[in-house]
From TrEMBL:
The gene is argG. Its main location: cytoplasm. Belongs to the argininosuccinate synthase family. Type 1 subfamily. Keywords: Amino-acid biosynthesis, Arginine biosynthesis, ATP-binding, Cytoplasm, Ligase, Nucleotide-binding. It catalyses: L-citrulline + L-aspartate + ATP = 2-(N(omega)-L-arginino)succinate + AMP + diphosphate + H(+). Residues 176-394 form the Arginosuccinate synthase C-terminal domain. This is Argininosuccinate synthase.
Length: 400
């Protein structure tokens, strides 16, 4: 079934994406498959992955170093938006998908491919994020998803690959499905599929168990400029270095784990475990700094925008007109969100214990209960009369 002549495949080096290469050629008549692995700071050695793609039948194997763009162009806007899906998940995995889609589209255009492909199944969120992002960036490109259609079990997938020289995993395969990048890890499947089961300690990699964390507290001062984190403890850091260093500090104190029942885009509830140490703390600190530097009405209105923004990212609509419009609002709010937030780490807790900014709207003379109080207390009575007038009139009518 010839659907495309030349295809760029999002390639991870795993069983599914490796088998996609011969499957596309043998079953769907694709002439050339170009593999594209995206380096998003996942820590894997991409040389062997690149070589594996060629051995699996790819005519070319590309590696895109996109870690800096991942942080600057995707993570930082999400931090400025305090984006937490269902008010918990900081979208560490979801944020990678529009970037990978962009890399696929760019490679397709560069190499003259008429289609792109991915290894997503039909039950997950990522298929939607890839497909819709690709449609937005180049609506004329075909999107192929072999794993969504082949109907193989894992054993059948491995057996199919072996026919074409793709070795089966040497060690016993992990029962967990894991995705990792610089921002964090997502872990699902295995014993985690029963939401009553406590996650085993073995699944965690970026965060320590509470029993293994230091007994002494550690303080970190996070500096922000226009809503973007720029320094730790007064030391200016590049975007990637800042995330890397804060991941280490945060994870060392057992901070950054999430265990949640998540409402997937396709209508299924799934039990998800996340590790996103730096990202969770940065959103917490950023939101706190906003409380110091933004007016009350902007702060309150932005909360609704943030919820919409997190849904947009989760639902694969990064390149949508609504996302672009909301970006304009969010960027406008961030102009004065500069300052420093002090965070105390101890035994699984990240507690904000201080914040300061040249743009602070906090007035000690008005807030104090001491002798320096400059607030005009006499003004309160008239304010309350006007403020409560609608309630008074309503009560008089209702209560007669």
């Amino acid at each position: 079934m010839g659907r495309a002549r030349k295809v760029v495949l999002a390639y991870s080096g795993g069983v599914d994406t490796s088998v996609c290469i011969p499957y596309l050629k043998e079953e769907w008549g694709v002439e050339e498959v170009i593999a594209l692995a995206a380096d998003l700071g996942q820590g894997d050695e991409l040389g062997p992955i690149q070589e594996k793609a060629l051995k699996s039948g790819a005519v070319e194997s590309l590696v895109a170093d996109a870690t800096e763009s991942f942080v600057k162009d995707y993570a930082f806007p999400a931090i400025q938006a305090n984006a937490l899906y269902e008010n918990r998940y900081p979208l560490s995995t979801a944020l990678a998908r529009p970037l990978i889609a962009k890399l696929l589209v760019e490679a397709a255009e560069k190499y003259g491919a008429d289609a792109v492909a991915h290894g997503c199944t039909g039950k997950g969120n990522d298929q939607v994020r890839f497909d819709v992002s690709i449609m937005a960036l180049n609506p004329s490109l075909k999107v192929l998803a072999p794993a969504r259609e082949w109907g193989f079990s894992r054993e059948e997938t491995i057996a199919y690959g072996e026919k074409f020289g793709i070795p089966s995993p040497v060690k016993k395969s992990s029962p967990y499905s894991i995705d990792r990048n610089l921002l964090g890890r997502s872990i699902e499947a295995g014993v985690l599929e029963n939401p009553a089961n406590e996650p085993p300690e073995e699944i965690y990699l970026m965060t320590k168990a509470i029993a293994d964390t230091p007994d002494e507290a550690e303080y970190v001062e996070i500096g922000f400029e226009s809503g973007i984190p720029t320094s730790l403890n007064g030391k200016a850091l590049s975007p990637v270095a800042l995330i890397t260093e804060l991941n280490e500090i945060t994870g060392n104190h057992g901070v950054g784990r999430l265990d949640m029942i998540e409402n997937r885009l396709v209508g299924i509830k799934s039990r998800e475990i996340y590790e996103a140490p730096a990202l969770l703390v940065l959103i917490q600190a950023h939101r706190d700094l906003e409380s110091l530097t933004l007016t009350a009405d902007v702060t309150h209105y932005k909360r609704g925008i943030e919820e919409t923004y997190s849904h947009i990212i989760y639902q694969g609509l990064w390149y949508s007109p609504l996302k672009a419009a909301l970006d304009g609002f969010i960027q406008s709010t961030q102009e004065r969100v500069s300052g420093t937030v002090r965070v105390k780490f101890l035994k699984g807790n990240a507690t904000i214990v201080g914040r300061w900014s040249d743009n602070s709207l906090y007035s000690p003379d008005l807030a104090t209960y001491g002798a320096e109080d400059k607030f005009d207390h006499k003004a309160a009575e008239g304010f309350i009369y006007v403020w409560g007038l609608p309630t008074r009139i309503w009560s008089q009518k209702v209560r007669g």
